[in-house]
């Protein structure tokens, strides 16, 4: 039984990792720009297809394909900022609606380029760590390690670098930030690169494990929204903690009952948080 | 004149907030703008610092026209704006709030010595340097906002209702600090709504239409 629990915990850690990457990016974009990026799931999909193309297709090393996925999707994010979010900044719903349009475009491009079928990505490694009767494949371990590394790097960037401060200041008060000499446009560009890039990395890292399709973004975006609502919209720490809580609850309920019940429990978890602590676990009540 | 505002008009959508204000600020002392709510005092400061774009009129600072520049460049020219409601960054520490005021500066030594200078003016901020700004009292937050503005090394300081919501004792303390800032050579434009509790009563007052 303890092996079984450990195995489930391994699975949950993997799910928590890539969901944290996605949710943190979503929170960062919302925090700095005030835009709810509905295309975030499709950025995740685009990252997966970067691996489909460069690793499975062209045969480049996996790590190179993942790096390309990060940079490529990060640049897609900067393009969204420049072409969609910046002109619509004064429109409270403009960014959200434009991101829905962009989501459909990305899906269509993926369908036209790669077809509707699930993509087969050859395994990166057959290795696994065995602990008693439980095991963790290297592929999943890579996702966990990369997530820890990237989130640590992001945390250091936000705390220690000047542009990290600018991002945090913008997220807290855009107008006051501009009065300190911080360029909102430049900061938004950085935030989009990082936020989109993290979604791209999540897609790239998990591509060998999920058989990418053009519509894979749908499933993660709903979960990502649940996570950022539970964590407290605007809180990066909250998003990480909520990703861990959600992934563990979801994985354990899936294992012991089934996936449909797990989805219901996930939504109930969000409702419970909204009832008890409407601002989320780490959120702060809006000032009047 | 350090700052000259000529025939400034500002519209929010179609509503006129300012219809032709002119003012001149010399390179020393305190200029106080007094007026009722909605008279356009804050709008005047917001136009000077670039937060709103004037629909007509000109703003000249230090001999150069600045009314077409974005706010982040106007700070760089030497105008620091302490906005209404203080607007400190609630989840940054006191010290981070102050240091971000020096965002555009590259002179490390100058930044450190200005930080010491701010801590000398506001000893209470030094005690609380690692605390998040949201945990401070209103008066302390006002000190952070003023200190943050000073960290940019300004040639002109804009203060929007710094006494709003503060107790008389704190108002007096802020008044003393503002007078002190003006004495050390940074001219101040002070906006106050409350005629009885305003700061800098001894300063110059331009006619306000």
UniProtKB/TrEMBL annotation, chain A:
Compartment(s) where it occurs, according to its Swiss-Prot or TrEMBL record: Cell membrane
Membrane topology summary: Multi-pass membrane protein
Transmembrane segments: 12-36, 48-80, 92-116, 141-158, 190-211, 223-249, 256-276
InterPro entries, A to Z: ABC_transp_permease (IPR001851), BCAA_transport_permease (IPR052157)
Cellular component aspect of the GO annotation: plasma membrane
Gene Ontology BP annotations: amino acid transport
Keyword vocabulary terms for this entry: Amino-acid transport, Cell membrane, Membrane, Transmembrane, Transmembrane helix, Transport
PANTHER family the record matches: AMINO ACID ABC TRANSPORTER PERMEASE PROTEIN, BRANCHED-CHAIN AMINO ACID TRANSPORT SYSTEM PERMEASE PROTEIN LIVH
Protein name listed in UniProt: Branched-chain amino acid ABC transporter permease
Lineage of the organism: Bacteria, Pseudomonadati, Pseudomonadota, Alphaproteobacteria, Hyphomicrobiales
């Amino acid at each position: 039984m303890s092996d079984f629990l450990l195995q489930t915990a391994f699975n949950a850690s993997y799910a928590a990792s890539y969901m944290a990457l996605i949710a943190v990016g979503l929170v960062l974009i919302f925090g700095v720009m005030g835009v709810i990026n509905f295309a975030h799931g499709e950025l995740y999909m685009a990252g997966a297809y970067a691996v489909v193309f460069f690793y499975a297709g062209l045969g480049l090393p996996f790590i190179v394909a993942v790096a390309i996925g990060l940079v490529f999707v990060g640049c897609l994010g900067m393009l969204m900022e420049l072409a969609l979010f910046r002109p619509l900044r004064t429109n409270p719903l403009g960014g959200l609606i434009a991101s829905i349009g962009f989501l459909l475009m990305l899906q269509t491009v993926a369908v036209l380029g790669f077809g509707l079928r699930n993509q087969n990505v050859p395994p990166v490694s057959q290795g696994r760590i065995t602990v008693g009767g439980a095991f963790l494949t290297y592929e999943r371990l890579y996702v966990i390690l990369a997530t820890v590394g990237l989130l640590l790097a992001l945390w250091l960037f936000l705390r220690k670098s000047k542009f990290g401060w600018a991002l945090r200041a913008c997220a807290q008060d855009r107008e006051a930030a501009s009065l300190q000499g911080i360029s909102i446009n430049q900061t938004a560009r950085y935030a989009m690169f990082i936020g989109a890039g993290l979604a791209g990395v999540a897609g790239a890292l998990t591509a060998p494990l999920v058989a990418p399709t053009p519509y894979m973004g749908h499933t993660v975006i709903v979960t990502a929204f649940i996570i950022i609502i539970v964590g407290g919209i605007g809180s990066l720490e909250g998003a990480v903690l909520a990703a861990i809580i959600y992934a563990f609850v979801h994985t354990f309920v899936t294992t012991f009952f089934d996936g449909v019940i797990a989805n219901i429990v996930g939504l109930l978890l969000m409702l419970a948080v909204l009832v008890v602590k409407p601002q989320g676990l780490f959120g702060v009540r809006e000032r009047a | 004149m350090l700052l000259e505002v000529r025939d400034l008009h500002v519209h929010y959508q179609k509503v006129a907030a300012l219809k032709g204000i002119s003012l001149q600020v010399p390179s020393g002392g305190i200029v106080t703008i007094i007026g009722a709510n909605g008279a356009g005092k804050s709008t005047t400061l917001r136009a000077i610092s670039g937060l709103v774009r004037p629909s007509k009129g000109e703003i000249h600072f230090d001999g150069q026209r600045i009314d077409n520049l974005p706010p982040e460049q106007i700070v760089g020219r030497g105008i620091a704006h302490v906005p209404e409601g203080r607007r400190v960054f609630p989840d940054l520490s006191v010290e981070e709030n102050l240091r971000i005021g020096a965002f555009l500066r590259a002179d490390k030594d100058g930044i450190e010595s200005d930080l010491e200078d701010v801590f000398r003016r506001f000893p209470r901020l030094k005690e609380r340097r690692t605390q998040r700004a949201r945990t401070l009292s209103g008066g302390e937050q006002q000190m952070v906002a003023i200190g943050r503005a000073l960290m940019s090394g300004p040639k002109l300081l804009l203060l929007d209702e710094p006494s709003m919501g503060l107790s008389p004792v704190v108002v007096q303390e802020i008044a003393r600090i503002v007078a002190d800032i003006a004495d050390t050579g940074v001219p101040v434009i002070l906006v106050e709504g409350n005629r009885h509790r305003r700061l800098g009563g001894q300063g110059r007052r331009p006619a306000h239409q």
